């Protein structure tokens, strides 16, 4: 009975206390205003933070997409240039065989293959950025890094070959021209001497490395003459190839081929190197945007766990 009476007293006291609090809450406008501002400021802060994150994400997404389109056209241009060089009269594969150095051919092949890869990679980057796909962006970033290193290596190869070309021409001509198994070397030297109106490696009429270099070659030791390709088109080949008197032999080309070929090689080498470095620079820029976008595109499960954690902390 006493306990029941005590319970009734406690219940009545609680009702009176709640009623008193309600009266204070209804009349205390300052307290209500304080609670309302606190709640509004919290929601505004959350909304502002979310808006800033969305804005940053959009910036990285649009930046990655724009640069992906840029490298798409760059890759298409590099691919076209690579095809042109491989089909050119002085193709890298022929020059590399004639010079005995594969660097020039390797640089051109790197440019050709990289151009095709850049086109495909740019499409992957565009779709990955547009669809906010971490998987596609991850593939894009990995391949992008490999391509940057490859293009820089190709540019270095092109510049190095340009400097080594003069030293490689002489030994190849002396030991391989006209020999069995060296048909491609012989063909290219004949083609070059006819097209450029030159004979031998370098120098002028009195140079031992121009037309006179053939006198030390295996071909001259066997045939006793210089190649027919060293003579003008309408020349008497019998007298032109065997007459070593330069004052009377006007049909023989007396200047070496290096100086004329070097201009072509240098131009192509600079073209390959400059385009490769420009493409590598563009890839570096798009790589930065892609990495930032990849970092901001957190997995959904991770985001849900973090939101649940934040909610539990607020409670």
TrEMBL record:
Report keywords, A-Z: Membrane, Transmembrane, Transmembrane helix
For membrane topology, the record states:
Multi-pass membrane protein
Q: Cross-referenced Gene3D superfamilies, in alphabetical order?
A: Tetraspanin (1.10.1450.10)
Q: Write down the superkingdom of origin.
A: Eukaryota
- The stretch of residues making up the signal peptide is none
The cross-references to InterPro entries, in alphabetical order and at most eight, read:
Tetraspanin/Peripherin, Tetraspanin_EC2_sf
Classification via Pfam families: Tetraspanin (PF00335)
Gene Ontology cellular-component annotations: membrane
Q: Any stretches that span the bilayer, and where are they? A: 59-86, 106-130, 137-161, 270-294
**Subcellular location per the Swiss-Prot or TrEMBL entry:** Membrane
Protein name from the UniProt record = Tetraspanin
């Amino acid at each position: 009975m006493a306990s029941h009476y005590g319970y009734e007293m406690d219940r009545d006291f609680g009702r009176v206390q709640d009623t008193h609090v309600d009266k204070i809450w209804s009349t205390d406008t300052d307290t209500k205003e304080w609670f309302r501002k606190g709640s509004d400021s919290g929601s505004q802060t959350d909304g502002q933070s979310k808006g800033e994150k969305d804005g940053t994400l959009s910036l990285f997404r649009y930046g990655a997409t724009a640069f992906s389109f840029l490298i798409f056209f760059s890759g298409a241009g590099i691919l076209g240039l690579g095809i042109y060089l491989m089909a050119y009269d002085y193709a890298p594969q022929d020059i590399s065989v004639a010079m005995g150095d594969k660097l020039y051919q390797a640089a051109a092949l790197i440019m050709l293959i990289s151009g095709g890869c850049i086109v495909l990679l740019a499409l992957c980057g565009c779709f990955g950025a547009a669809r906010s796909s971490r998987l596609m962006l991850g593939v894009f970033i990995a391949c992008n890094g490999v391509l940057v290193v490859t293009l820089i290596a190709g540019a270095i190869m092109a510049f190095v070959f340009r400097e080594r070309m003069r030293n490689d021409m002489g030994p190849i001509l002396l030991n391989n021209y006209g020999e069995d198994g060296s048909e491609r070397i012989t063909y290219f030297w004949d083609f070059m001497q006819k097209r450029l109106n030159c004979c031998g490696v370098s120098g002028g009429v009195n140079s031992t490395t121009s037309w006179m270099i053939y006198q030390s070659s295996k071909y001259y030791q066997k045939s006793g003459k210089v190649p027919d390709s060293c003579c003008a088109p309408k020349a008497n080949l019998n007298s032109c190839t065997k007459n070593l008197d330069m004052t009377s032999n006007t049909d023989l080309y007396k200047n070496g081929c290096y100086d004329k070929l070097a201009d072509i090689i240098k131009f192509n080498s600079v073209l390959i190197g400059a385009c490769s470095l420009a493409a590598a620079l563009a890839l570096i820029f798009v790589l930065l945007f892609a990495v930032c976008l990849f970092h901001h595109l957190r997995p959904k499960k991770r985001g849900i766990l973090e939101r649940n954690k934040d909610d539990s902390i607020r409670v």
